[in-house]
What does this fold into?
Amino acid sequence: MKYRILFMFVIMLCCGMTQNAPAQDYMVGEGDVLKINVFSHDELTTVARVSGDGSIKFPLIGQIEVGGLTLLQISDRISTLLSDGYVVDPQVSIFVQEFRSKKAFIMGEVHKPGFHVLSGNTTFLELLSVVGGVTKDAADRATIRRRSHLPNSEEIIITVDLKSLLEKGDTSMDVPIMDGDSIYIGKTGVFYATGEVVKPGEYKYMEGLTVIKAITVAGGFTGIASKGRVKIMRKVNGKEEIIEKAKMDEPILHDDVIVVPESFF
It folds into this structure.
């Protein structure tokens, strides 16, 4: 159930707000299918797929370069060409009938990992809805690796705080997804609480976890717990280390085992 209810609620809001949003700034690429209408000139209505060289064919005009242009720029270009002796004051409208040119790769703890076509201007949250959301084992952060378009520049790394986005509604985390992005959502870590805690067991690891927070997650101390003799069992480079009499603000790491012994009195 991790994030599920909040995630679905946010997705419904997001889809409702973006479904009718203008896409005139969408940059067209190879494989996109465009439907072009000219007001009062039904005979010029055209459905055209953008070819590998970034062009389409249009009645009267012939071949037009459209790759890398926005819908508004293409509309202006066709209007200009048509007005040159073909149509008086042409009113051209264009929308993308099929999106095929832009893709992103998402992997890790999502229900439908793999390559996904970006339908217009796509945000992180919209892509999550396409892949069916995150799994119950998903970590609290996602990493987006984006190639830089500047020469000799390293790729760009973007971190998305899933907890802030899905639980707190922080829309600043709902970043735009770009063509060629690689998104990774890892598996969350765990910690263990055993001994004199109310609910011994395995628990999801959280950033900033301390001994007292971990014990609180495990239901707190029992009435016979020795609070001053809590110890942490930890593996470091394959070897087990034990932190005796751990302080309550001692940080907890992935796979730590917190042991609360029984009081002698």
The chain is about 15% helix and 30% strand.
